[in-house]
Amino acid sequence: MNDEIKSNAEELVNYIMKKCLWQFHSRTWDRKRQNEHILDMTARMIYGEEIKPTTPEEKCYWADAMCLMEAFNNHFGWLQKMDRAKKEAVMTALKDRIDFLTVTGSLNLELTDTHY
After folding, report:
1. Is the sign of the CA dihedral 84, 81, 64, 45 positive or negative?
2. 10, 27, 111, 115 — which has fewest CB within 10 A?
């Protein structure tokens, strides 16, 4: 991954960590599911794809993804100017970093406590 992609992804990570609460669920499986669905939908919206959620769970993810996509477009104009390949690289790096920070690299022992 080149420095520009890494730097761009880190800007988006910082926004999520400061402005969003969905990545702080109390269980590992829930954080993974939230990261996967919200960031996937956000990425697809950024690529210009239309998403039509059908289940209540999908609608919840869609709402968070829509807010995130709008925030990214409002605060990070460079994202809109990128071609699809660069957008995909940034969004993949974003997902990888959020997964690390909130799941695999987290020192929060409550995430795996069976009695919690």
Report:
1. negative
2. 115
Kindly report the pTM of this predicted structure: 0.89
Furthest C-alpha separation in the chain? 48
The residues, ordered by sequence, that sit 6+ positions from 94 with a Cβ below 8 Å of its Cβ are 9, 12, 13, 16, 39
Token pair 């402005």 in the structure block, residue? 19
d(CA 28, CA 51) in angstroms, rounded, equals: 26
**73: number of Cβ within 10 Å:** 13
Chain position carrying tokens 């609460």:
21
What residues in the chain have per-residue pLDDT under 70? 23, 107, 109, 112-116
